[in-house]
Amino acid sequence: MTITKAACIGGGVIGAGWVARLVLNGIDVAVFDPDPEARRKVDEVMKGARRAYKRLATAGLPKEGKITYAKTIAEAVADADFIQESVPERLDLKHRVLAEIDAHAPSSALVGSSTSGIKPTDMQVAMKKHPERLVVGHPFNPVYLLPIVEIVGGEQTWPEAIELAREYYAEIGMKPVVIRKEIEAFVGDRLLEAMWREALWLIKDGICTVEELDDIMRYGFGLRWAQMGMFQIYRVAGGEAGMRHFMAQFGPCLSWPWTKLMDVPEFNDELVDLIAGQSDEQSGKWSIRELEKIRDDNLVAIMEALSKENRGKGWGAGELHKTYVKQLGAAAKAKVSKAAEKAKATKPKKVAKAKK
Amino acid sequence: MTITKAACIGGGVIGAGWVARLVLNGIDVAVFDPDPEARRKVDEVMKGARRAYKRLATAGLPKEGKITYAKTIAEAVADADFIQESVPERLDLKHRVLAEIDAHAPSSALVGSSTSGIKPTDMQVAMKKHPERLVVGHPFNPVYLLPIVEIVGGEQTWPEAIELAREYYAEIGMKPVVIRKEIEAFVGDRLLEAMWREALWLIKDGICTVEELDDIMRYGFGLRWAQMGMFQIYRVAGGEAGMRHFMAQFGPCLSWPWTKLMDVPEFNDELVDLIAGQSDEQSGKWSIRELEKIRDDNLVAIMEALSKENRGKGWGAGELHKTYVKQLGAAAKAKVSKAAEKAKATKPKKVAKAKK
């Protein structure tokens, strides 16, 4: 199955990121967002994404899909076979939007939700016609570059919908991971939340600043996690003795007083001021746009670098990057040859006409 | 200040990693480890480190320092100006070893401990002569490649010792971050512990496998953390509205049921079996040595890639990588010119002799 026409409901950072990934893969997208600024915001993200893909797509890029702005959800989804919802994280809003999508989308269309935490079971109750086609397709920012997407099904979701989601997301260069059991926040955000909570304690208690904490990540374990995850890295650390040895050595730490996580830091103005102030000190010299460009360039550079490792086969996100670049290149050629065919198909007609 | 002679007490994965970093920077190291297998184990790590540096040091590498194996701690530290302790994480053992180091090392020598969690205050009580020169210098595996080192002082540590540690670690290509307040597990391991705990829950509850969790990291936020840390990435995610906006949006999640962290999973055989089994499935096709090579190649590749970003100035670990490569190259030349000088200095003498 191939996406021929997509709809994106919600054009914020995440929604616009989906728009960018889709159109850069040559797919037409209808956008619905009631924000009068939506078009400008999508344009902004598109600018960044085009810039990143110019560098990423070393083998060529298909002709960009067309973006149209719909006045209603009904209009946006009317002829879509893939719909991605990225509206704010409020269950009542999700219900309203999903009900409308469901009422107006073709019955064969797949519906993905970008929610980073709400269970699909709790969302699909609002879909009266085809709740079985709802999946969570949870991406990470920037959506047009980071490959991961967590797919989660709800109680009413059909296995076929999960499979179709896997195909659709892979088709636009992503790495789908299907979460086995539905829980709030799924896997990625559970882990991020754990880190975030501990990080807030460390800042609040004055153990380090946000810049120092970031440095400990990016000069340290972040470099490991970009290529192997936590478990594979620990397996290597365990050495020949293996994973069991590693766990025997570090397992007991769980009961040591090595964490503040048993408790939640109070989220007040003081904490926000502290962190926002330190963040200004750390990054105030760059605008967000500049930082975005640096981030995107770094992401492409890391994936490119990893695409040459493992005896040239590529490793992790680099292996996928290699495939993605080829795929975009092939799509570029396919479009060209389609156009060439079309030209050919037209030419003889003209010739025939002329002969008449 | 420059390290002229180092001693490494403990030659396990971490200790041997220090040996490798030091000798590859041209510094002689005396090793003490009572394990009869110590020499073989250090050789093994040296092999991996030499391989990695062959690729990393594109501008040249100084002549390798000499490794000698001492029969006692006293012998190892006798003429060292920098001593790094990397023995197992038991306070009684640390006390015994640090007492002996302190008794026999020159009084001007700096003592760094590789502990990943014990407070320096609790360790330095065993040092009767010069407790003020103990710092924690907590590295991350592989020590010869990952730049980060957390420096932590105890109650008796002199500020001058912290400063000297900063210089010494930077001299061998590391990124020192001084932790502002002494707490158990410092910063890096606090964060890792938070992740590890949540990860164990996710595996135990069957939400995902270790491979799926690793993929969510390495195709997702791991790629972000390798270049910016958590706070800088979130700042960018907050967009023009900034960090305050980001926090306002996600702060309340802290009180949502989005984590299992309030509780500790029971660490039993069942959990170990589950994880070790899944780890075999994920990585059993590679030997640990193969995985180590892949990891090291990937680390160098990522740092190399980042060294070309940010308009060629390099970014994060890549900026440091750039400097480090130059520094190693300069050291290579310095050794050469010293040797050339020596040769020159010798030659005239001979000439003079011949003239006589």
TrEMBL record, chains A, B:
SUPFAM superfamilies hit by this protein: 6-phosphogluconate dehydrogenase C-terminal domain-like, NAD(P)-binding Rossmann-fold domains
Compartments in which it is found: Cytoplasm
InterPro entries: 3-OHacyl-CoA_DH_NAD-bd, 3HC_DH_C, 6-PGluconate_DH-like_C_sf, 6PGD_dom2, L-carnitine_dehydrogenase, NAD(P)-bd_dom_sf
Enzyme class: oxidoreductase
MF GO annotations: carnitine 3-dehydrogenase activity; NAD+ binding
GO cellular component terms listed in the entry, alphabetical order: cytoplasm
One Pfam family, short name: 3HCDH
Pathway(s) it belongs to: Amine and polyamine metabolism; carnitine metabolism
GO BP of this protein: carnitine metabolic process; fatty acid metabolic process
UniProt keyword list: Cytoplasm, NAD, Oxidoreductase
Domain 3-hydroxyacyl-CoA dehydrogenase C-terminal stretches: 186-251
Reaction(s) the record says it catalyses: carnitine + NAD(+) = 3-dehydrocarnitine + NADH + H(+)
The organism's place on the tree of life at top rank: Bacteria
Domain 3-hydroxyacyl-CoA dehydrogenase NAD binding: 5-182
Binding site for NAD(+): 10-15
EC number: 1.1.1.108
Protein family according to the UniProt entry: Belongs to the 3-hydroxyacyl-CoA dehydrogenase family. L-carnitine dehydrogenase subfamily.
Entries under PANTHER family matching the protein: 3-HYDROXYACYL-COA DEHYDROGENASE FAMILY PROTEIN, 3-HYDROXYBUTYRYL-COA DEHYDROGENASE
Known role: Catalyzes the NAD(+)-dependent oxidation of L-carnitine to 3-dehydrocarnitine.
The protein's assembly and partners: Homodimer.
Classification via NCBIfam families: PRK07531.1
Record protein name field: L-carnitine dehydrogenase
Annotated source species: Mesorhizobium australicum
